[in-house]
């Protein structure tokens, strides 16, 4: 879910929101809600024994023993996805700025100083 959100909406957020800090905060705020929903969905499907599990086999005893590699791997993958998303937001802002400069520099009917 967070990957789809990043691929589809990070660049448009950067293009549409004019201030870079606001654009990044918008991306992170919406992304945090999606991340929470994604994590809850994965845990609930794991508890219901649905499909292939993201967290390994269901524990059969208490206290549950888990493999910390899976936990850190999940966190690392999501951290990389968020970093790429922030990069796409920044790229969108730069593209918007470049477009605005080109359109203002070459506006029809205006004198352009070459120089």
Task: Report on this structure.
The chain crosses the membrane at residues 71-92. This is Integral membrane protein. Keywords: Membrane, Transmembrane, Transmembrane helix. It is a single chain. The chain is 70% helix and 0% strand. It is built from three helices and no strands. The protein is mainly alpha-helical and 115 residues long. α1 (2-16) runs antiparallel to α2 (20-47), α1 packs parallel to α3 and α2 packs antiparallel against α3. 12% of the residues are buried. The N and C termini lie far apart (50 Å). It has one domain (2-53, 66-98).
Describe this structure in a few short sentences:
The chain crosses the membrane at residues 71-92. With 115 residues, this protein is mainly alpha-helical.
């Amino acid at each position: 879910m967070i990957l789809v959100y990043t691929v589809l909406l990070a660049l448009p957020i950067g293009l549409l929101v004019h201030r870079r800090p606001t654009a990044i905060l918008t991306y992170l705020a919406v992304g945090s809600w999606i991340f929470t929903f994604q994590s809850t969905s994965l845990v609930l499907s794991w508890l219901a024994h649905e499909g292939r599990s993201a967290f390994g086999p269901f524990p059969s005893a208490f206290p549950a023993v888990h493999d910390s590699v899976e936990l850190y791997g999940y966190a690392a993958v999501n951290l990389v996805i968020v970093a790429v998303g922030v990069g796409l937001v920044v790229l969108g802002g730069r593209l918007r700025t470049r477009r605005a400069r080109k359109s203002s520099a070459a506006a029809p009917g205006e004198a352009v100083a070459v120089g």
